[in-house]
Amino acid sequence: MSDSRRFLNYPRPCEHPVVPYKQEAQSIPVFRGYPLVIGAALIRSIGLVQAHFWRNAGFHVIHEIKDLTRYGACYDPTVVPVVSPEHREKNGGTRNVPAARDKKNEGGLGYYYTSVDYRERYLSGELTPRAVTDALLSLVQRDIEPRTDHSTAFLESQVEAIRAAADASTKRYQEGVSLGPLDGVPVAIKDEAHIKGYKRMLGTNLDFKGGCDETSWCVKKWEEAGAIVIGKTTMHELGLDTNNNNPNYGTPRNPHNTQYYCGGSSGGSSYAVGAGLVPIALGVDGGGSIRIPSSFCGVWGLKTSHGRVSAAPTVGLSSSMGAYGPLAASIDDLALAYRVMAAPAPAAQDPISAQFPDPTTESALFSTKNGDATTKTIGIVRSWIDRAEPAVRAVFDATIDHYRSQPGYTVVDIDIPYLVQGQRAHALTIMAEIASGVTPAQIRRLTPPNQVLVSMGSMQVTAQDLIASQRLRALLMSHLAHLFRTHPGLVIVTPTTPIPGWKITGGNADLSHGLSDGASSIRNMEYVWLANFTGCPAISCPAGYSDDGVPIGVMGMSEWGSEEDLFVFARDGEALLKKDRHAPERWVDVFAQL
Q: Which pTM does this prediction carry?
């Protein structure tokens, strides 16, 4: 490993003994419709009922780990790459964001337009940002009649501000002073981010703006690069599930098959990209919420290793496992969006963000695949991936066979201990963090499924539970550090989720009142939780389709600070979609609207 690859808060590498992977059967009943409304009221109010469901959820397994007390509690998994002054002086300099290369119908993109397609038409004068923006607003505004199928994915669009930004971009192109590859490109932002002039509801009927009327740092970076925010997208209420069912504002259906969910909690953003409305959108990956919908909607999703970094200002609910991250219709746009948004914030605004290297000038120093290094190692936990359903496993196996054929790749078997217990610790931590930011009066105003979850998070999670979970986080990070040091360039590869989509089984009853299906939620999170809990970067790549036409994704997770390695990994697997990628059932040809 290069001497330039140094870190702050890097875990002590330590191999933990192999622990057989054994997923316990769970007895969690499914509630929907009016029984859910009644059951939620009982569970919210009666502690004995809460305790019963808590025991059945299997959280006790965390306390069965005998040597957990050897580890100190880790409450924040942020690991900061450090660039030496010598390397910074040699390789740093003016920010230079490389333009994307991909265009529609190249690189397996099928029907998807990219930032390159927008920019070429703007530069030629064929289209203007204002014309594109007006066409999109007619599709995404929920406060105009007749509403379209697409407007369900959007919570709010501040029309005057949007048109002003579009006019400014149009003028720059006309005067030959474009800001660069993102100028005039439409983007969508998940409701979890702060944007000046917009509400922040977190998918609820409550106000989580916290008196803050500023724009989150990462959104500000996109806006400064000329991107046009066409609106805020809907999300699962509080981000507390993985299907994006939201009775408050409506549930966008999967653009590939409307009988399925988009996945949550960033389902509105993934719909916007998956349906072709925008080439780039912002999600927040607190529990895997970027990668699950990106998998179900057939787009790329990145979870960064910056933790809470680039999310400033942070007001209201936050998570030690959360990070804003992009979704995109192409790998190039994913990388472009990340490199712009992940610019370090000023130290006065966010001292942790300020310590990170700039992705456009320094992060390449942390790539094990740059320079003379050719190590590309894929790690597989066999007993873990065996949990995937047959359709998902078939796509995964085809993906691994593809990588075996690529120059420089080696596939190795690895072990990661306490995966079952770790997933419970991850869920417990999220529930406790969200419950700590919601009052009893606010709980009563949540949808029935979240009344159940937040009530249990506030009443059933003990101090012993929470501390044990953070100790387990430290153990897992220590073991991963051992794996990354043993196998330089390691990418741990799994399916993104073990299921080929989540069907809207209950129809309108589920969409009207919500759905409480804890077993399916936990099942859907079986792979994505690890990157969130340990702070590692991860990427979800579309790799195939189910028999019902729902996209299936494959996920790669790598060492802290190695996002650039993941872009290389994704690019090397891009050929998997070249033959099969096709237009979704709900597809918008934006340029044809003009």
A: 0.94
